[in-house]
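Project standup — Tuesday

K.O.: blocked on the structure for the chain from last sprint. Re-posting the sequence here as requested.
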Amino acid sequence: MAALDAVLSARTGNLSVLHETREELGDSDVLAYAARVVSPGTSHECATVIVVATCCRQLRLHWATADHAHGPWQPAPHGWTTRPARSFDGGGGAWVTDFESVGHDCQVVDVTVPRGRHFLAFVLRTDHDRFVKKGGVDMYLPLLTSDEHPFSSCMKITARPYPADRAPVPEPPAAEALSVAAAASIPQTETSQRVLGTLNDALAARSAGAFVLHSEQGELRDTAISAYAVQVVSGSDSGQSCRVILAVAAGGEPCLYWGLLNHKGGAWNAPSKGWQTTSSRDSNSMGHAALLSNFEESDDNIKLLELSFSDVQHKFMAFVFRRSDGEFVKCRGGGDCAVPLRSGGSNSRAGLDSHNMPNDQRHRLCEGTTRATEEELCLENFRTTGSHKKLNLHKHLCEGVAVKNREDMRPESSRASGDPRKKLNDLKQVGEEVSAATEEDSSLEDTLPLSRIVRKERSLDDMRCATGISPGDGNFDAQLADDIAHREEGCQRSLMHRYNCAAEIMGRVAQRGQDGLVVLFAWFRYMSMRQLVINRNYNVKPREISAAQEKVTIQLAEIYRSRPESREITRMTMMTIGRGGAGDIGQRIRDEILEVQKRNDCKGGMMEEWHQKLHNNTCPDDVVICEALIEYIEAGLDISIYWAHLAKYRISKSRLASYDRKICSEPCFRQQQCGGLLRDLREYLKTLKAVHSGDDLNSAASAVLGYTKDSRKGVAVRMHPIAAVATPCLHDLLHLAMKGAEATRQGGDPLLALEPMVEARWELRPWTVTGADELGSRLKDVLYLDLALEASIRTIVEGCLARICSYAPSDAMELVSIALENVAMSSGCNSELLMCLKEWHQVRRSAVEGVGDWALHAKSVMDRIHRELASRSDSWMRALQPPSSYLGDHLHIPASVVQVFAEEVVRGGAAAPLAQLLRALDPILRKVANLGSWQIISPVTACGRIICVDDLTCVQFVTYDEPTVLVARSVGGDEEIPEGVVGLMTMDTVDVLSHVAVRARNERCFFATLFDKVVFDEIAALDGSLVMLKPLASGDAASFERVDKAPQDSASEPNPVAHSRVGIVLRHIEFGGTFAVVSSSFSDSVAGGKSCNLNGLRGQLPDWIKLPASVAIPFGSFDSVVADAENTRLREQLQAHLALLRTKSDTVDKTLDAIRSSVQQLRPPVAFVTELRVAFEAEGLPWPGDGHEDKLHAAAWAAITGVWASKWNDRAYISCRKAGIDHAAISMAVLCQEVVQARYAFVIHTTNPSTGDAGEIYAEVVCGLGETLVGNYTGRALSFVASKHDTSRLALKSFPNKNIGVFVNEPTMIFRSDSNAEDLEGYAGAGLYDSIIMGGSIQKAIDYSAEPLLRDAEFRTMLLHKIAEAGRCIERVLGSAQDIEGAVDAAGNIFILQTRPQV
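H.V.: unblocked you, prediction finished:
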């Protein structure tokens, strides 16, 4: 550091230091380095990085720039310099600069880089070409301060494993095999030449005139197999049939294990029909598509083998040798050998490579092999290394890792001896020196490289689950709950009794489906929460408990298989109990604790008390106790750590003392005991979790992959693998997942664990969804592995929340992607989640590629995911709270536990950390997208008293006596502003052109959406206080402050509608004598503004803007129909209801319902039908007569009466009452049009309503019909602004995320309301009344990942430009700002459906 300070002072003077760090590299040549980033001025136009290192060798700096701490290396921008000036291009985006010596073995280099990148990445290299990194990863130095980049707030060096394909100076790969094509330049040994000669002789004798596809040889350097050569030949150029002839120099009787591949790195496959070998001694005893073939003897101890294929369906053949002593021999790099079977392409002349398979598809040759001797078993389970580290030979052999001759691993004294007993004794002696490794124990220890995996391309539709009962009805089987409560006293004797009781009622649970499962879940969860007595005056052996437990889990797995609609709640129930196990699996709990005590001399005190409990009544508490003991030892025997861990899981001193075999003592170990106890308790914890834990990944993986526990610690246990499920791919993914999880706990990259975990869930999915019938009783093991993976992903995601800001955007979004996949895989009816996931994948690709507006798009998808998670959360709350409350009362569970039961379940599910992750990412994305924390929908100043409400709909009929600011958690979009309200705030995303938004602007009511929950909660905390709200000039934020009284000056804008009824007088319009009017006769005495404004546009617009043919049912028609003799009874009912409405204010809602019901029962007069048909024919509209000219289709009449009835809907009545409008004076015309089968619908305001800028057009677009824009449909539309001077100048304000679109399947009619109470000066009645489609419409979920409006930027720009241009043309024709509704059909035609003055 002193040298660095000196260089800094000499070279840069008194400059500001942006960042400084010092690292001990721990390398034999480079002991330490220090670095500082300095800036020459406050403008930060460039930065100088000075690196000092101590080293006795000449160093070089390999460096580049990066956009983020996890990013790829990129060349430095123009204008950079180095000192000394000896830089050169090292390839791969990296530059190389020599250090210069400054004495005392210190070397220094500085690099000055102009601003334009966020980080400098570098590694050190010695003069003997050795790279020096920090823990094996590249080093990154930020070139910005923490507030200049949203994803680099942490001012520490971020270390990340470097992608192999982007290494600054790649080292040449070692040649693993020799190609015959290059044999002239490579020295050949005598043995290899003899092998090649024998092979060529065989080729000439057996395949005369054959076309050689591939030919090569290699030196194996094995004591028994010296060399090999292989030729792939074909009888024709087609490559559809071929022979593989292989020669090997080997002693003894070697054999070949082989299989076929679709690509290098792929899984081994069995050959198709039509293959043969020169020796008919092939077998498939090894499984996993590996076949065994014996060689035939040739001259000079050379062995030959020929394989013939009549129909080549695969591209490669993979193989390894097996010696007569059972050893496998592979390529020098430890990988399987592979040769191409087809000609052409890049693989036709590929040399035999060291076939190191990718982590997700590595073949294991010998899983399932029968071990003949005890020596073989020991060799599989033990190995000694210099560090006494455990290693599993059998797994390493099967995973394609290089394995040396086993003689090298045996004790020296046994290598020359042929006595197997001597060898076995030596191995046992070695085993005494180290902890014995079981197959289960070694699952975390693996030589697979810990790095990011390349995930498979999959169709997310394969994850779709259409089954599942909606969980929100709250129904449950009360009789089952009563039965459980009645049995509870007997269940308290022991866990065995409880599980046996559950097994007895499981048939009834299965019959009742979800209604029974929610009760069973509540019961089991209360048990897992330690709210029920688990042991009273009864002793049970551990194996009896685990056997009863296994019986229950098998029954639950059967319910999962037979009732797909209840799988989600079944999974939740299985999570509350452990997997269990028959026979000796449970017995080991009892036996192994004795071994722990014996080996570590701790037979008294707490350990003896715990031992007695374990012998007589083990339970899930024992897992927590064991974990507490481990943490106590790791903390240096700090007893407070022990009690803290117990308290975390609700285990108190009184609970410990409540067991039949009480635990009253505290642990008190000696320091010399700690090492052995820590080792043995960790091993014992795995035994406990194998029985009691439902979400432990290690034990769950072992149950599926298979394991053996020898008799060294108790009774031997062997769990056979589930052959169909335990594929090589799954095996490696689980190894990587568990290694990655451990690395994550040490602060490593969470994606190292998350990616293989979610890939492993994909591998299990065929068995958890469609293949459950084939697994029998082992289905429960597969389900528990899937549950453990789900829980592990959830845990890791939770751990990422605190550091999400330091991640690169692509990595942060990948975390969301994996968390969302995790939720979708565990959920029924997951179509909405899958559509969100598809779109999120597209957004992530856009973020990686730097596509504009990706953050805005990501924010839109995040909001949609949030809504779906909230909906599911609410549904489960409604489903689980009733049965848990009912059962909790009967079981005398504390009220404090019962009241939060469902909430705790939801918070503990996979969706909860995803929701937290999205909330953490939200402010970051908003900052990148230049979005504020507010969306100001109605920008006015307001002062009022804050009142918090859950839902705006619930207070629509309320009249507030003083100016009020409502803080509503839910706003749908079609509500009415309550009387007396001057301000409205919510966290719901509401369209700027929704009804409630238009009403707020019309009534001069402040309205805003808050995206920052902290600010929202801060405002909500002012409930009951008087506050002043002021929108800022920027239009994207507002200020709020608490005041003692309302201001008397003009700072608070008037809100006339909110404080008093305006008293608008409507002109009464008499019936004109005709029931139908064609468009050419529209006037304000016949119909409202919708009809008249359309008529004013005809002939005034460009041809590409189309207007629909229209007929109006004029004002007064409703009164004339009511007066018809056929409707006498209904007329009397209406008169009575209307009189009640004027006198009874406390029954308004019921009276309005009755009026609407009466209106919809009216019958059409004959003259009405006749005149309407004539008008339709004159206008060219199809007659909705169901094939009869003299009849009107019932659906058409229902739509017309529905429009008339909407005069008395809640919103309209409230709005008119506030405005002082006489409701009786409202006349309702009906505008009849053919429905445009819209691909998109839009609403245009030709003056930006948020800013009042008359030079800007604001528009919103949705998929389908416009009902989703004006109705109560959650989510945002696509919104944009365009300049009127140049409508091609567009700016997106939001991407769409409405999950529902409204469509019609066939041509039909729409009947629109067109009253005389709309578009009045000072009052906008638009949207108050209904427009109804004849026959109704259908709703479809919108998959935006397949929508050109989002996927095709060029198409989107063209469409939005046309919409904006249409708005500009209409405003020019009508001479004032307009509120326009329109549609775009499948051919891209623009239709204007209605327009009115914008207010």
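K.O.: great, moving the ticket to review. Residues 854-890 form the longest helix (37 residues). The chain is about 35% helix and 20% strand.
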